[in-house]
Write a structure and sequence with these properties.
CATH superfamily of one domain: P-loop containing nucleotide triphosphate hydrolases
Number of helices: 24
CATH architecture of one domain: 3-Layer(aba) Sandwich
Distance between the termini: 58 Å
Radius of gyration: 27 Å
Helix content: 40-55%
Strand order of the largest sheet: 3-4-2-5-10-1-11
Number of strands: 19
Structural class: alpha/beta
CATH topology of one domain: Rossmann fold
Length: 719
């Protein structure tokens, strides 16, 4: 056995777990890639123990070579799990068998930490002044509470605040990269939370960060990460999207107005007026162009009025920055205020300049906005070349996730990363779960499809019945914030709040704290949006039911996705290696909704959407990525849930025979009821220990049934 095998056995034994061959296969592949400077892509199904499959070889390598390994995640939830649970247990378990203790640190973006300069009021800001003079309203109370916490926190990390924080409140005590005056010039440089975190990271064996930080460090060349000789990317299915988001630029009139507000007192009135005229010109131009748009729209060339406005904004910002540079006041608070003003101006100046010189390898689009506050956006047509040159050509990379394959292969992913089969090893180590025997699907019958107003009242009533039947213990996921808010309003009236408390995700909420509350109260229901589809770990009895309001199709009017499809089609292909990009996105999102919810051997959710009439052939034709047709389409689940459907029977005795491609006992616990069409299909998912004999009741013809554990989770009513 290898050193990695021995170390992994020591960790699993200390945790009271069992040996998993897939985990050992993964760990050795990771060790080989890090050791010889190559790349490996590993699909590790839920239950494999993926995090230890890469953390153990990373720890062995770091302790042996005294070099750092960076681990990047897509979600804060997984980042938190690694830092607060997995790594402490790993370090303790390895201490008896390693030559020295394994160390680790977490590193986030600067705006995730309290800025002491702003906290102590040396840098006045219009929004901050308004907030801190707020009367004792709910927001005012939060301002006071957050300030008190910020004064006593040892880390300054936003995610350690025990409650939600309004984004406006957090902005009042934090800064971005460009707004920071720098450690050497700051009055609080020696106490800076960001600096302390980076010093810890420089000494650590394993550094946990996120995809955005990795992209900024690698692609933009801004050294925000410590020196390292290997990178592990978990939730790797998100890398391309997160890297794209990290280097996507946007410009709004509000950004220009914010810059003017910060610089107003530091430059001549004539320069301020020039900025204001440029801002008004941009506002008029963007609103004029947005009037005719029904949604985000690509601009293959900039309209003349927008071109003129951007030029005015760029030149006015450049003039203001030159004037700021001439200010020689060395007093720390004055320097900090000047740097914040310069940072805001640079943001606007650089985006305006980039929009003006955008070329054929860029995508520019105008989003009219829900409140008619337009936004200009700019993104690269592809990040594959950037990732290849800036990341893969410079360091060995391990990329892993529970869901990476499309149509049973890695071709699409490998191509999107700018790699080829010749320079990367791909492998699927499977999953210890028997997914074919652990799923129930409930598709609500005769519900209207979601419309412009969002989820229908009938669907909300169905959701309430599902929650009551499950005794709470429900995670309800929505495709929009409007859906979350509408459901929250309805359920608070419809349900007994004491019996079934409802937790609601809000914009800017700390997901970790919300999930902790949900896991701690088995009667509770958690309502949230797509950010809760992955990286959420709720083992035990607190989550036995998952409801989604519609199939997670990507927006059909997404300008970037459309432009990428058009570019690929122009090269004579359809999507990545013959698979439509929207199908890839939908397939991976759907599979993540399943995989992220399988936290132990008793719980799994299965997505299997059906169109009107339940005819599988039509369903495959419309949604090959969600069903799987045995060719290059995306299977609903990577382990035993794909393949063609053979027939769909009527509800009643023997319903579902032959439905599942694997056959056998799996169909006894698969219930599919109703169906409203693939697009916007309302459906609910839940399961608990199917195949273990704990289901109550039979599927009765002409009735709607929710089947669950014999402990009483059962609800019947007219179909």
């Amino acid at each position: 056995m290898s050193d990695v095998d021995n170390a992994l056995d020591a960790v699993i034994e200390a945790l009271g777990g069992q040996r998993r061959e897939g985990q050992h296969e993964m760990a050795n592949a990771v060790a080989t890639a890090i050791g010889d400077g190559s790349h490996v892509i590993v699909q590790a199904g839920t239950g494999t123990g993926k995090s230890f499959g890469y953390l153990v070889p990373a720890a062995v390598h770091a302790a042996t070579t005294n070099n750092t390994v960076v681990v990047a995640t897509a979600t804060l939830a997984l980042q938190r799990q690694l830092v607060e649970r997995d790594l402490p247990r790993l370090a303790e378990a390895l201490e008896p068998v390693m030559a020295r203790p394994v160390t680790f640190a977490v590193l986030k973006g600067r705006n995730n930490y309290v800025c002491l300069e702003k906290l102590h009021g040396t840098v006045p800001e219009d929004e901050s002044e308004a907030l801190f003079s707020t009367k004792r309203t709910e927001l005012g109370e939060q301002v006071i509470a957050v300030r008190e916490w910020a004064e006593s926190t040892e880390t300054g990390d936003r995610d350690e605040y025990p409650d939600e924080i309004d984004p406006r409140v957090w902005r009042s005590i934090s800064v971005g990269r460009r707004e920071c005056v720098g450690e050497s010039k700051c009055a609080f440089g020696e106490e800076c939370f960001t600096v302390k975190r980076r010093l810890q990271a420089q000494e650590a064996d394993i550094v946990i960060t996120n995809h955005a930080m990795l992209a900024i460090d690698a692609i933009e060349g801004i050294p925000v990460l410590p020196e390292h000789d290997a990178v592990v990317i978990d939730e790797g299915h998100e890398l391309v999207d997160r890297a794209t988001a990290a280097i996507t630029s946007e410009l709004t009139v509000a950004m220009v107005e914010k810059a003017i507000g910060r610089v107003r007192k530091q430059i001549d009135a004539e320069t301020v007026e020039r900025l204001e005229v440029a801002s008004e010109t941009l506002d008029d131009a963007m609103r004029e162009e947005a009037l005719a748009l029904g949604g985000p729209t690509q601009l293959t060339s900039l309209p003349k009025n927008v071109l003129l406005a951007l030029t005015m904004v760029r030149d006015a910002c450049n003039n203001a920055m030159s004037e700021l540079a001439a200010d020689r006041d060395k007093e720390p608070s004055a320097m900090a205020a000047r740097q914040q003003a310069r940072g805001a101006l640079e943001d606007v100046h650089d985006v305006a300049g980039s929009l003006l010189i955008a070329g054929e390898h860029d995508v520019v689009w105008l989003d009219p906005g829900e409140n008619r506050a337009p936004t200009l956006k700019l993104a690269p047509l592809s990040v594959s070349g950037l990732l290849r040159e800036a990341l893969f050509n410079k360091t060995p990379v391990v990329l892993t996730s529970a869901t990476l394959t499309v149509g049973g292969g890695f071709d699409s992913l490998v191509g999107s990363l700018g790699l080829s089969e010749s320079n990367v090893v791909t492998m699927d180590v499977g999953s210890p779960f028997d997914h074919a025997k652990q799923g129930i699907l409930y598709v609500a019958k005769d519900l209207p499809a979601p419309g412009r107003e969002g989820i229908a009242m009938e669907a909300l009533d169905e959701l309430a019945e599902l929650i009551e039947a499950a005794g709470g213990r429900t995670l309800a996921l929505f495709s929009s914030w409007r859906g979350v808010e509408r459901a929250a309003e309805y359920l608070r009236v419809r349900l007994d709040a004491k019996k079934f408390p409802v937790l609601v995700q809000r914009k800017g909420d700390s997901v970790g704290n919300l999930v902790d509350k949900f896991a701690a109260d088995q009667a509770s229901t958690l309502l949230g949006t797509v950010s809760l589809w992955q990286g959420v770990d709720v083992p035990g009895e607190s989550c036995i039911q998952v409801v989604i309001d519609r199939i997670p199709f990507p927006r059909p009017d997404d300008p970037l996705l459309t432009a990428r499809q058009r570019a690929v089609a122009a090269r004579g292909a359809v999507g990545h290696f013959g698979v439509d990009d929207r199908q890839i996105v939908l397939g991976l999102r759907t599979r993540r909704a399943v995989a992220a919810l399988v936290q132990h051997e008793e719980v799994i959710a299965l997505l299997l959407p059906l169109p009107d009439g339940g005819e599988p052939a039509r369903c495959r034709a419309r949604m090959p990525c969600a069903i799987g047709d045995g060719d290059r389409s995306v299977a609903a689940h990577p382990h035993g849930m794909g393949g063609p459907l053979q027939r769909v029977g009527r509800i009643g005795a023997g319903f579902g025979e032959g439905l599942h491609p694997n056959g056998g006992g799996a169909v006894e616990h698969l219930r599919i009821i109703g169906g409203k069409g693939a697009e916007g299909l309302p459906l609910a998912l839940f399961a608990h220990g199917a195949g273990k004999g704990d289901f109550a009741g039979d599927n009765v013809a002409g009735q709607r049934e929710i089947l669950g554990p014999a402990r009483g989770l059962r609800h019947s009513g007219p179909a």
